[in-house]
Amino acid sequence: MAVTIGQQAPDFKLYASDKKEVTLSEFNGRNVIVLFFPLAFTGTCTAELCSIRDDIGSYNNMDAQVLGISVDSLFTLDKFKAEQNLNFPLLSDFNKEVSASYGALYDTFVLGMKGVSKRSAFVVDKKGVIQYAEVLESAGDIPNFVAIKEVLSKLA
């Protein structure tokens, strides 16, 4: 079931690539950008997350924490984060529960893979309310980061 703007964001508890537990609620009082991405080490995912890495100052200046989530194992995400020098947490939704709760899960992805996160972006405000939601059907598309920054600028 997809989440909608104005709705309380579903809280979650996932492991980050550094094996530490991360919850959405621990960021209460801060804006959060939740980015679901299909698979580590793929071209579009690498380009998307590296563009966030290179522009992390903009998000920090808007008091926004970026969280990247995929169904990859935390070990895969740890290697991906290190190789790409990513400067924000990558969280493993290996059991696919969080992706499903946000309406960001493919039933069937390429090559017959089932249960892969859809490329999606959500802005959660300081009170835990969804202020922006974009779930993309095509894994080759990138979220509208201009629109995301516009929403964040109104929340800062």
Commentary on this structure:
The protein has 156 residues and is of the alpha+beta class. It has a single domain, classed as Glutaredoxin, CATH 3.40.30. The chain has 5 helices and 9 strands, in the order βββααβαβαββββα. It has helices at residues 43-54, 56-61, 74-84, 97-101, 145-155, and strands at residues 13-16, 21-23, 31-36, 64-70, 90-92, 105-108, 114-117, 120-124, 130-135. β6 and β7 (114-117) form a beta hairpin. The longest helix is centred in the first third of the chain and has 12 residues, at 43-54. The mean pLDDT is 93.
Secondary structure blueprint with pairings:
Blueprint: E1 13-16, E2 21-23, E3 31-36, H1 43-54, H2 56-61, E4 64-70, H3 74-84, E5 90-92, H4 97-101, E6 105-108, E7 114-117, E8 120-124, E9 130-135, H5 145-155
Highest CATH level, the class: Alpha Beta
Largest sheet: 7 strands, mixed
The CATH superfamily is known as: Glutaredoxin
* End-to-end distance: 29 Å
SS summary, helix count: 5
State the total count of DSSP E strands: 9
Number of domains: 1
- Predict the CATH topology: Glutaredoxin
Helix content: 25-40%
What portion of residues belong to β-strands?
25-35%
Mean pLDDT: 93
* Low-confidence segments: none
Strand order of the largest sheet: 2-1-5-4-3-8-9
Write down the secondary-structure element order: EEEHHEHEHEEEEH
Query: What does the oligomeric state look like here?
Result: single chain
Backbone shape: globular
Structural class: alpha+beta
Kindly provide the radius of gyration, computed on alpha-carbon positions and rounded to a whole number of angstroms.
14 Å
Query: Which second-level CATH architecture applies?
Result: 3-Layer(aba) Sandwich
